[in-house]
Design a protein that fits this description.
Distance between the termini: 36 Å
Bound molecules: xanthosine-5'-monophosphate
Number of helices: 14
CATH topology of the largest domain: Rossmann fold
CATH architecture of the largest domain: 3-Layer(aba) Sandwich
Strand order of the largest sheet: 2-1-3-4-9-8-7-5-6
Helix content: 25-40%
CATH superfamily of the largest domain: HUPs
Largest sheet: 9 strands, mixed
CATH class of the largest domain: Alpha Beta
Shape: globular
């Protein structure tokens, strides 16, 4: 990264770690997540503008818990510890950290004292807590900067050393003025200049892709979603005509999906895009498979097989491009975070890939950052605002085994939902909206006859970056119309339910 300002975020295993990185980048300062075990000498060489210790699931006093040499606190680099990171600072500096009897979770009223890190904030606000351990006694040289009713040490600092600890999560949107707190740390305490822009990301990505690809040829799997479109455009800028794009019809696509993608990308954007019909190949491999991660692994493996075949048929291809983005990586359990689900393009890849290598230019970005890159690259809105569609498609929206007949039922129901959302003009407010064919059958009555048919679930969420999401408050008349149309127009569905769960605790997709 040809930028001399960097905030190093050291990963101690929290689920929101990359979100911290994102918030810092949004402030115009380049930031990257590094393993907690990064050697001190490496950190000294990087000479970051500031360091942030993330949250994490451990207790600082457990023998196996993730830690870092105390020397890091003596480098004169401003440090901010969040949750576990704050407890780690207290522990390393000989303060006392204890385990509470119950976990503290959710929004809490907080009182801030006068301090640079809370500069321009009101004296009180709401902060988001998620912890069991807490700092009972702060170390010598530190002072308490904020408290809640249940947490005396909600923030503390050694002002001279510019080392700060926050028990709450400023990176989470539910913390009022959380961004302002990070901004104060980065600019007022660490004195960053803030000269990082998406343009820098694009330039450095193009350089990196050229270095990896050399004079080799490149193949890109297109799903029609924004990630693969942006990844393909970046790679196209780097290697030009040496890029071939492939759209795989795995039989798990939405109604008319393939023809729409071909018309937008091949006819509209003039990309070198080939459509491969691999329905039988995927569906036969998925026959009888029920477990979500097994489905993803099979799909990941088959995608690569298809790409290998295409590679042979068009002449040797050296590199494969994937539109993997950060939430795919973090939720697949890379770094220190707990695995949530294997995304098909991360953990789902087979061990042996018959290419020289993978190119994943968006691996460190969140969806909204990907869209910003797309805007910068000049992609049209129709591409950038397409709602996300997971690579495994309907395979993870049919709970249980996948059959042709279930696919066609779901395809029709999903099309009705999408049509009605568009008619109600709600598409831009909702992050993702789709139907799920549950594995439940229930009794109904139609035309005086008993039915025993599928239950369909509707899922619609609002989100900022897919890391957290809320169920969309679709007006009841719209839901009513969707439900009526589905039970009337789709054979074999006699019940429609609406999923009103946020993420967390649920995920967006059902599998
Ligand atoms: P979850 O279900 O984890 O989804 O809340 C977060 C976002 O990721 C999409 N998703 C996937 N995308 N391959 C993909 O390309 C996958 O295996 C996969 N699983 C989930 C999901 O649609 C949502 O946008």
């Amino acid at each position: 990264m040809n930028n001399n300002e960097i905030v190093l975020v050291l990963d101690f295993g929290g689920q929101y770690n990359q979100l911290i990185v994102r918030r810092i980048r949004d402030l115009g300062v380049y930031s990257e997540l590094f393993p907690y075990s990064t050697p001190i000498d490496t950190i000294k060489k990087i000479n970051p503008t500031a360091i942030i210790f993330t949250g994490g699931p451990n207790s600082v006093f457990d023998n196996e818990s993730l830690t870092i040499p105390k020397e890091i606190l003596t480098l004169g680099i401003p440090i901010l510890g969040i949750c576990y990171g704050a407890q780690l600072i207290a522990f390393l500096e000989n303060g006392i950290v204890k385990t509470a009897e119950t976990r503290e979770y959710g929004g809490k009223n907080i009182i801030y004292s006068n301090s640079l890190i809370f500069d321009s904030l009101p004296n009180t606000g709401i902060c988001w807590m998620s912890h069991t351990d807490y700092v009972d006694q702060i170390p010598n040289g530190y002072k308490i900067l904020a408290s809640t009713d249940s947490c005396k040490v909600a923030a503390f600092a050694n002002i001279e050393k510019r080392i700060y600890g926050l028990q709450f999560h400023p990176e989470v949107v539910h913390t009022e003025n959380g961004n302002k707190i990070l901004e104060n740390f980065v600019f007022k305490i660490a004195k960053a200049k803030g000269n990082w822009k998406m343009k820098n990301f694009i330039d450095s990505s193009i350089d990196k892709i050229r270095t990896i690809a050399g004079t080799g040829s490149v193949l890109c799997g297109m799903s029609g979603g924004v990630d693969s479109a942006v990844a393909a455009t970046l790679v196209h800028k780097a290697v030009g005509d040496r890029l071939t794009c492939v759209l795989v019809d795995h039989g798990l696509m939405r109604k008319n999906e393939c023809s729409e993608i071909m018309s937008v990308f091949k006819e509209g954007l003039g990309m070198n895009l080939i459509l491969i019909d691999a329905k039988d190949q995927f569906l036969s491999k998925l026959k009888g498979v029920v477990d979500p991660d097994t489905k993803r692994k099979i799909i990941g493996a088959e995608f690569v097989r298809v790409f290998e075949d295409v590679s042979k048929s068009i002449g040797a291809v050296d590199f494969l491009v994937q539109g993997t983005i950060y939430p795919d990586v973090v939720e697949s359990g890379f770094g220190q975070s707990a695995p949530i689900k294997l995304h098909h393009n991360v953990g789902g890849l087979p061990a042996i890939i018959n290419f020289k290598g993978l190119i994943e230019p968006l691996r460190d970005l969140f969806k909204d950052e990907v869209r910003k890159v797309g805007v910068e690259l000049g992609l049209p809105n129709s591409v950038l605002m397409r709602q996300p569609f997971p690579g495994p498609g309907f395979a993870i929206r049919i709970i249980g085994d996948i059959t042709e007949s279930k696919l066609s039922v779901l395809r029709e129901a999903d099309a009705i939902l999408r049509e009605e959302i568009q008619l109600a003009n709600l598409q831009s407010e909702i992050w993702q909206y789709f139907a799920v064919l549950t594995n439940v059958r229930s009794v109904g009555v139609m035309g005086d006859m008993r039915t025993y048919d599928h239950m369909l679930a509707l899922r619609a969420v609002t989100s900022f970056d897919a890391m957290s999401a809320d169920w969309a408050k679709i007006p009841w008349p719209v839901l009513e119309k969707i439900s009526n149309r589905i039970v009337n127009e789709c054979k074999n569905i006699n019940r429609v339910v609406y999923d009103i769960t946020s993420k967390p605790p649920a995920t967006i997709e059902w599998e």
